[in-house]
Structure prediction request, 377 residues.
Amino acid sequence: MKLQSFVELKSPLLIGSKLTTGNAMHSTERIPGSTLRGAVAQAYLDCYGSDCCVSDPLFREIFLDGGVRFGDHRLADVWPRSVRVCKGRKKTKHAPIDLLLRAGAGKELLLERCPEPGVECLERLVHPKGGWDNQAEDGYVEMELKRVRQAHTSMDPMLQRARSETLFTKTSLSGSQSLRGFVEIVSGNPEIQTRLEGLGELWIGKGRSRGMGSSVWSFSGGLDQDESKEVEAMAGRMAGIQHCAPVELQEMVLFSITLQSPAIILDEWLQYQGHFGAAELDGQLTGYKPLAQFADMTAVDGWNESAGLPKSREWAIDIGSCFLFGRQISNTDERAAETQRVAQTLARVERDGIGERREEGFGEVRICQQIHMDLAY
Prediction:
């Protein structure tokens, strides 16, 4: 049972993007599922009693046995790393382009200037920030969360006044904003939803003792679809990406995978990987070869509140990374039959996610995302 979830910020929110040693802190642009899970666990203990972690079987099912999957919450879908925009887009209004299919066909990628048709634009191409929204009038536009910067000094204990030459700054997400994501109750137990809906206010991130991180958690309608409709929609998107592909890829069955949250991928030796093969996702995808990727790695840090210690660092493929896979099938009828066969597997992969720690929001993916077709260059 998958539910649409919303976190409405009532005060500034600061979630450290990485372990810092300096005097400046910057918040992430999303609420990671692992952070939300910890905040919900604390709210659960405050609401139903601190001893429920031992006596309440629902607590164990939700937080210890992986019975609930907490997705990342963000303002909008993230830009794939294959997308480029004109650096002066706020003035020029030039459309963004996506290079994933172009890279899969082996074409030139070193575009130095904005390739807007019919216009000689001298602006450089850059990767957009934040998330995106597809608006009817303006097409794909950038969506960024509002931020607030605060600064303060430290106190000199001897002089009882502000310490000279010391300044701390923090850039946090301002209040009165709403972030959306999902919560999946794996077992489908309706009592879990009732318990979670009764929590209401959450305290997330840093600065909670100073009033930061106050938020309201709510649910709306379910995101579950009939399995046959999911497969049908996946087959339609696969046909769409095939239609938009360059001529060099026309005789291949294609699919793309775009990460909406970091994915922790381990090999058979438990080493962190910066890529993955199609067959590693599911045995039914054996034979599909990687054609292109736009990816990067990121460190995954965390804090164990009960122990008062940092968690062990892990490495993940970063959010927005995208991959293109393909399999050569020349016969048109065989290609259509293969698309239908693979669509069922890909629909399950998109629903379940990939990699490790999926109950904490890691490994959320979009397969054959429409943006790769609409912006294909």
In short: The longest strand covers residues 214-222.
